[in-house]
Amino acid sequence: MSESDETKPGTTPDPAPRGRGRRRKPRSKRRKALLITAWTAAALIVVGGSGLGYVYFKLNGNIKGIDINAALGTNRPKNVNNGSMDILVLGSDSRSGANAEYGGDTGGARSDTAMVIHVYKGHKKASVVSIPRDTLITRPDCTDDKGKTVPGGTREMFNTAYEVGGPACAVKTVEEMSGIRMDHYIEVDFTGFKKLIDTLGGVPITTSQAINDPKSHLDLKPGTHTLNGEESLGLVRTRHGVGDGSDLGRIQLQQAFIKALMKQIKDVGVFTDPKKLYDLADTATSTVTTDSDLDSVKQLAGFAGGLSKIESQDMTMVTLPVRYDTVDPNRVVPMEQQDAQVWNALKADQPIPPSATKDSAGDKGNASQVVTGA
């Protein structure tokens, strides 16, 4: 990862509980806000059923959708109709437009954060697998947004898939790595993430030690803090202030922040405060990009409604099993047997076995213990 990556300045849903995932016959019409998108979208159920046609229309017009099915065609993993659902959540690091304050535009955004969320049958529990951006993989051939074929290659960093081929290439790469078909795709960039946190009113966390990272402009003393959007972005981007300075420690911070964020969304009374409900729904729908199965209020609300029973304690979070590359210690490579354990467990809708991550570099260190929900 280059040092430039760390610069900164500052009505009722349809009854299908699976949120219209793709594990069924595909439709003819078919994308980070981390998990805030899902929880915020649950609020849209209320908005969509309120009879406020203008509000519904406005929120519906906010959402940007990408037809992943059309882009990837039929050469994909099989739909498995077992009641589970798999979602690829990306945070992009585009430096264009309002994101320019985080560094110069180098010609293409990359996926700064990538998580595969597996929601188990019954939609009461979930597993989250974070994929390190610096993982060296075999990237498949992709088609970019101009219809040009982009050759794949070996020992390519995982986050280049999004850079060269956009969301469809990111989905295709994850599907080839895992053998699992992604039912949905959700993406948010730096600016969108900040707006979501600020609209929510901040996220309370407790730090067990000081976090000081000039690269992400984050300076927190030990204790309890309510992070605004800028500070939250600094926390989920920092890698020099905690742990061994690698992307692996940063992933642990991201996972801890997600749990604090989920708790806050339930604690602030989003569902009982009409103004907060609308403001958050308006912000969420205008800052995320989804697959085209989620690009309307009704679809997004139905999807989120199916996730509303999942609490932070019902989520298991792991990093894809990796080891440091022997040629370039700034990169990591997948541990094939352990990775297979992870993906096979999710395919079978089973918990990820502890043995899969036992020897992985991804879940070592104490970064995950530094931040907790307040």
Account of the protein in words:
The chain is α+β, with helices and mostly antiparallel strands and 374 residues long. It has one domain: Nucleotidyltransferase, domain 5 (2-Layer Sandwich). It is 34% helix and 21% strand. The chain is built from eleven helices and 18 strands. It has helices at residues 36-48, 53-62, 68-72, 160-178, 190-200, 229-237, 247-267, 274-287, 297-305, 336-347, 367-370, and strands spanning 64-66, 85-92, 111-119, 126-130, 136-139, 142-143, 149-150, 153-157, 184-189, 203-207, 211-213, 218-220, 223-227, 288-291, 315-319, 322-324, 332-334, 371-373. A seven-stranded mixed sheet has the order 1-14-9-2-3-4-15, sandwiched between helices. A hairpin with a 4-residue loop joins strand 11 and strand 12. Helix 2 (53-62) packs parallel to helix 8. Residues 1-35, 38-52 and 95-107 have low confidence and may be disordered.
